[in-house]
Every structure is written in C-alpha cells, then in structure tokens.
Design goal:
The complex is a heterodimer. By secondary structure, chain A is an all-alpha fold. Chain A is built from 14 helices and two strands, in the order ββαααααααααααααα. Chain B folds into two domains: 161 residues, Glutaredoxin (3-Layer(aba) Sandwich), CATH 3.40.30.10; 123 residues, PCu(A)C copper chaperone (Immunoglobulin-like, Sandwich), CATH 2.60.40.1890. Chain B contains seven helices and 20 strands. Classes of the chains: A mainly alpha, B alpha+beta. At the A-B interface, helix 5, helix 6, helix 7, helix 8 and helix 10 of A face helix 1, helix 3 and helix 6 of B. The complex binds copper (II) ion. The site of copper (II) ion has 5 residues of chain B, from helix 3.
C-alpha cells in the first residue's frame, strides 16, 4: 500500500490515500493497450498487403478493438484504481469485465491465420491444445477465480503495482482460456454440439462463481483488509461493499452468460432449419415436408 | 470427456503439437492450481481462529509494564464535564485520540472497532473518542460524526492544554496540526493507537492503525477471558441481557464464571432502577434470594425460565437496542459494572446459550 496516489504511475495498486475524482495516469495500462493494438494493427496491415482481408477478418478487427477497449476501461483510472484500492465490489466487477467481456472479444478478434502465427512464434501448440480441452479450461478459469479471491492473496497482490498487474494478467489469460472451447480461432477446436456448448458455458462460468460468491456474502465480517482499511468511498461501509461484491459474484455473470447460451441455442436452431431446408426437409415456411413427393390420390372411380 | 471436438480441416495441419511442449505446461499449471488449493485450505483453516484456546498472542501490541487508566476531565458533547477515570472505572474501555476531518485512520479505526463491538453480543464496553482538533471539532460536529458509528461513543473536547494533558496522561504522543494548505484545510498528526483499558483499570494492550474488525472479534472475547485483567478477581460476568421492560418493571439475566475459589453473588444494583432483586426459582415457586452461590470453577447462569434479576422502579422504559447498567456485588470479588443489552424475550434464550459456549464461559 502507498500513502498517496501518484499523478503518474505504472499500474493501479491499493492505497491509504482518500479517493478523489482527480484523474491519474497509469502509463503501464496505456502501454499495454498500445502494444496490443499496435501489434494487431501491424499483423492486419501485413495480411491486407499480401493476401487481402476477408469480411471475416474485418469483423474480427471490430471485436478485437472492442475487447481491448473493455480491457482498457477495466484497468485504467477510475475503475482500475477503485477496484485495486477502494471497493471489493469494483474488484469483482473488474473480474467480470476481464473474463466475460474483454477475454472473449479479444479471442473472437483473432483470426485463425493470426493465431497460427502467434502460436508458432511462441512454440505454444502444446499449451494451446491443452487449453482447448474443456476440463482444463474449467480448471484454470476457476482455479484463478478462487485463488484471486482468497483474502490474503488479494491483500498481498493489490498492495503493489506488479502484484496488481499480475492479478489482472491472470484474469485475462484465464478468461481467454475459458472461452477457447467456445470461440477458438480454429473452428474445429471448438466444442461442436450446441448442448455441450451450453453445458460447458454453465459449468465454466456459471457454477463455480457461486462458491466465492456465497463465501463473501455470508461472511459476518469484512474479509479483505485492503478494502476494509481503504478510505471510504462516499457513504459505503465495507459491509455494504462486500454484500454487493458477493451478489455480483453470484449473479453478475448472468446477463452475459445466459445471453450467450441463448444465442448458441438460437444459432443452432437456425442452422438446423437451414440445413434441413437444404436437403428439402422443410418448405420455405419451415413446415416439414415429406422426403419423397406425395403420391397423388387415386381418383375414385 | 465427451465434448472433445473432432478433428477439423481448419486446424493448422502444419503445426502438430510437439508432445514435449505440453508436458511442462500442464505440469506448471497443475502445480499452480495445487498451490492455489493449498492456499484456500490454509485460509479456511486459519479462519477458524475463534475456536483456538486463548493464546498469549494478540493482534495488538502488549503494553509492559501495564499502564494505569489515565485521569483527566474533559467536556462531553453535552457540554458537561466528563471525568474519564471515574466514568469508565472497572469497565472495558477503548480510548482513541483523533479528529473528525481525518481522511483515513480515525474513521476507519472507529468503524472497525464499533462494528466489532456491535457484532459481539453481550460485551459491554465504553468507547471514548477525544478530539485532537478542538477548533474544528465543536461538540455538535463531534456528536454528528460519532453518530455514524455503531453503538454509543463518548466524544470529548477541551482546551488545547487540557487535551495535551489528556494525551500525555494516556502515554500518547501529543498531536500536532500540520500547516494549512491554500484552501485553509489541514491535517493533524496524531497517535493512531487504540488504547484498551481492562476492568482492572490497567492498559495491557494497544492496537495500531490497520486493526480490522476480525482482529477485534478475535481479541475482545479473549481480553475478557484473560485471568487477572478483569477487576473482579477470578469472577467474571461473561454476559448480561435485559428483556424489554415497561411500566417500571423488567428482568435481567447474567452469566457469571468463577475461575477462583468459592464466592457468591450477594446483590445487584442499578443506577437505572430503584431496586434490583435476585429471584431464584425452585420447583414451581419463585422467591427472592439474598445470595446466589458461585462455587469454585462454576459458571452460573440466571437465564430465562429460571433465576433472574427482577428490576423495579426503572427510570426509563427499556426498548430493544437499549442498554442498562448493572452492578454485580460479590461476597469476595470486587463489584463489577456491566452494560446489559436489551434484547427481545425470544432472543434471550439463544443469547444466553451462546454466552455459555463463549471462550472462558465454562462448559
Ligand atoms: Cu486520523
């Protein structure tokens, strides 16, 4: 912890200085965003010059930029500082933004050709293969979730810029791995069956957060020294803050998670009807038709 | 698992996974998750700290040799003089020097302590906040600010000389106001310690800034269970409750633990009631008793349905959330003053049962 918040520093960390609305500069956050967008832009420009960009590539750019923006908003002042030094509920919100917004958007924003080059460069095929295994993704995502909500761990990591950065990095990486089985750049590596997709999404993102959520909600005392001893933000008591954080942990993922699950179902239903149409199983209104033309009725003599 | 994807033509064919690359990565990850799991288990085990037997380690700093309860008279928020030593004698007391414009340590230290006391049922304690910034902390300002915290906090002010003398009497470094900034606001450097005085009128412990609610929740019951610190020799009142009373009559309940030789409760008095009588129930009859035996090593409970303290001529109505002062007189041990919390009749049995299980509360 520091006893004052510097006007310019690298990453957000906890502090005993009272909260003010005076903006602070976090150079590390800007550098991260610049490096992410810069390398992505260079790769896209090179691809455009050599093979040209497909419409899928162009959509990917939009997703990647949105994902990086979410990452930026979650890491920079004011949210980043509030989450690392003042409010547990913001810490929890940042976890949700990192893993449920920034991570999937960034993965969707990486086309297969780019992913292949990235993984080649870091010789990361082993790690990649492992990460597409649903059991592994569930384990890593939720291992990080639980680990980064253990009170002494949060207190220790949030106390320094490097620790706070490590926490954020763990969230992003575990979030990306968590989404790989659903949105891997290589379509063949995704979970194929819509039903299993939904099961995976629920198990990976919906089930485990209930544990820390309940743990946080039912604790009679503030659990995290860093947030309990932080200067007050408005009239919030640490108890209010912790209750909200527990609730967010339990249900904060619901809107995104269930929208995605709904989307998976609708998409699969549409695809199914389209493919049935192709083989002539349904007519244009979606009504099933017989595979063989109906036999004309025998005229009654 | 069944949801593994079948191979797909889009998968990078030119980049087969080198088998060796997966080994170390999986190993590292599994190791990291293992470390995390150990962390979780260690934390959960540590969380059960309340059930550990009292150990001579405290979350605060021990004061050795113990310092006596300081004597000073300041002015309360009601404008009346407040003699600290006399008003808090024999009671668990928390004394803090600070100022209401403090951005961090003062409000947080007061919040963690008062919240903990609120969550520790049946613990009677006095909390006294003495300003170190009398020019800004008027009695009204003090009262308003202290109203943000749970329970009753006594706010005191005085002349700069009186306040400096009070800090010196408590062994605290005298606070100094820093230079005002351009806007005229300034901070006050002051002792951040929460001074704890036990019923033996001594200070054995001092808690630094950064003491959290769970620290207090862990230590306060142990402070009250500490042999020799609790004034009434080896006899200790571990819980005191009253039921809501109207029409001038009410009832109070006690849990008393005797870790010394044979003793007895020989009477109860209360500044809030004209009379307080010991009523004991034997069989179906209830009678007034002049004394109630406290055998060596026993915990005696005056609990609902059995023995109780009959209060009459109450000076005020007792509503849930109020407290009433009781003085318990013993044959051997010195008298003990306790603050009995008024709780609904339905809650009484549960609270008394809880008191019987409290640390030092006997079996
Ligand atoms: Cu202060």
């Amino acid at each position: 912890m520091t006893d004052r918040v510097l006007a310019v520093s690298w990453w957000c960390q906890s502090t005993t200085a009272p909260w003010t609305w005076t903006p602070k500069a976090y150079v590390g956050v800007w550098a991260m965003v610049a490096v992410l967008l810069g390398t992505y832009g260079v790769a896209m420009r090179r691809r455009a010059r050599t093979e040209g960009l497909t419409s899928r590539d162009k959509r990917a750019i939009l997703w990647f930029v949105l994902g990086t923006l979410a990452l930026w908003v979650a890491s920079d002042w004011p949210l980043g500082l509030l989450g690392s030094g003042y409010l547990l509920s913001v810490h929890t919100t940042l976890y949700l933004i990192y893993t449920m917004v920034a991570a999937p958007l960034m993965v969707i924003g990486i086309p297969d050709w780019m992913a292949r080059r990235m993984i080649d460069r870091v010789r990361g095929w082993g790690a990649y293969r492992l990460s597409t295994r649903p059991w592994f993704a569930v384990l890593l995502l939720n291992g990080v979730l639980v680990f980064t909500h253990i009170p002494p761990v949060v207190d220790a990591f949030r106390a320094s810029q490097i620790g706070s950065f490590a926490l954020d990095a763990m969230w992003l990486v575990s979030g990306m791995v968590g989404w790989l089985p659903i949105v891997s750049p290589f379509r063949g590596d995704r979970v194929q069956s819509p039903v299993w997709k939904c099961v995976y999404l629920f198990v990976a993102f919906g089930l485990f957060p209930m544990l820390p959520g309940a743990f946080i909600t039912f604790s009679p005392v503030p659990l995290y020294r860093v947030y309990e001893l932080a200067p007050r933000f408005g009239d919030w008591t640490p108890e209010d803050d912790q209750q909200l954080a527990g609730a967010l942990m339990k249900v904060g993922n619901v809107p995104i998670l269930w929208s995605v699950i709904a989307a998976v179902f609708i998409k699969s239903a549409l695809e199914q009807s389209r493919s049935e149409q192709r083989v002539g199983l349904v007519d244009d209104d979606g009504n099933p038709v017989a595979a063989t033309p109906p036999v004309p009725p025998t005229p009654v003599s | 698992m069944a949801i593994d994807a079948p191979p797909h033509p889009e998968r990078a064919p030119e980049a087969p996974a080198p088998r060796s690359a997966r080994g170390p990565f999986a190993l590292i990850t599994v190791a990291a998750l293992l470390v995390a799991a150990v962390g979780v288990i260690a934390f959960l085990r540590d969380d059960g700290g309340d059930t550990r037997p009292p150990a001579p380690t405290w979350r605060g700093a021990t004061v050795e040799p113990a310092r006596s309860r300081p004597s000073f008279t300041l002015t309360g928020t009601d404008g009346q003089p407040y003699d600290f030593a006399a008003r808090t004698a024999g009671q668990l007391t928390f004394l803090f020097f600070g100022y209401t414009n403090c951005p961090d340590v003062c409000p947080i230290s007061m919040a963690t302590l008062t919240q903990a006391l609120h969550d520790l049922p049946g613990v009677g304690a006095q909390v006294v906040f003495v300003t170190t910034d009398p020019s800004r902390d008027t009695p009204e300002r003090l009262q308003e600010w202290l109203g943000h915290f749970e329970g009753k906090v006594v706010g005191l002010t005085g002349t700069p000389e009186q306040l400096a003398a009070a800090q010196q009497a408590a062994g605290a470094t005298v606070a100094i106001a820093e230079q005002p900034d351009a806007g005229g606001s300034y901070t006050v450097g002051h002792s951040a310690a929460m001074n704890v005085y036990t019923p033996d009128d001594l200070q054995h412990l001092s808690y630094p800034a950064g003491t959290v609610q769970s620290d207090w929740m862990a230590d306060i019951p142990r402070i009250l269970a500490q042999p020799g610190w609790n004034g009434a020799g080896s006899v200790r009142v571990t819980a005191a409750y009253a039921s809501p009373g109207t029409g001038g009559a009410g009832a109070a309940y006690l849990s008393v633990t005797n870790t010394g030789g044979d003793d007895a409760i020989v009477g109860i008095t209360s500044p809030d009631a004209a009379a307080a009588e010991l009523h004991v129930t034997s069989g179906t009859t209830m009678r007034e008793a002049t004394e109630l035996a406290l055998p060596a090593g026993a915990t005696v409970q005056l609990a609902p349905g059995g023995d109780h303290v009959m209060l009459s001529g109450l000076t005020r109505e007792l509503a849930e959330g109020d407290t009433i002062t009781l003085v318990v007189h013993f044959r051997e041990a010195p008298a003990t003053t306790v603050q009995a919390a008024v709780v609904s009749y339905d809650d009484l049995a549960g609270r008394m049962a809880q008191a019987a299980d409290a640390p030092g509360g006997g079996s």
